[in-house]
Amino acid sequence: VQLQASGGGLVQPGESLRLSCAASGLTLDYYSAGWFRQAPGKERVFVAETSRSDDSTYYADSVKGRFTISRDNAKNTVYLQMNSLKPEDTAVYYCAGRRPTSGYDYWGQGTQVTVSS
Predict the structure, then answer these.
(1) How far, in Å, CA of 85 to CA of 90, rounded?
(2) In the predicted model, what is the mean pLDDT of residues 72-80?
(3) Rounded to whole angstroms, how far apart are CA atoms 100 and 49?
(4) CA–CA dist 51, 109 (Å, integer)
(5) DSSP β-bridge partners for residue 8
(6) For residue 75, what are the CA distances in angstroms to 7, 43, 78, 86?
(7) 109 against 54, higher pLDDT
């Protein structure tokens, strides 16, 4: 199983980025998928999830209204559209997958997002 995250980069405050997470070795349609992030010197924290259990999406309060998680099951890929980026969004972003009744079992390698003027 492999989750390949991509799409990170350096942007200015207020700009947008879209992260992608391509899965291989598992069928994302059967899994919940999420994004987490880890800022320098801080713990990894939850950002967003698209749930397979109830087909709902969930977001951390800090990103609600700015970030959107989505999935394309035909491409076996999950996305994170990030708008109105702020310097405090700077972090390494990780995608992850889990079975509907378990914790996150599968993790990608991370992609760096830097928001700076």
Answers:
(1) 9
(2) 95
(3) 12
(4) 21
(5) none
(6) 16, 31, 9, 29
(7) 109
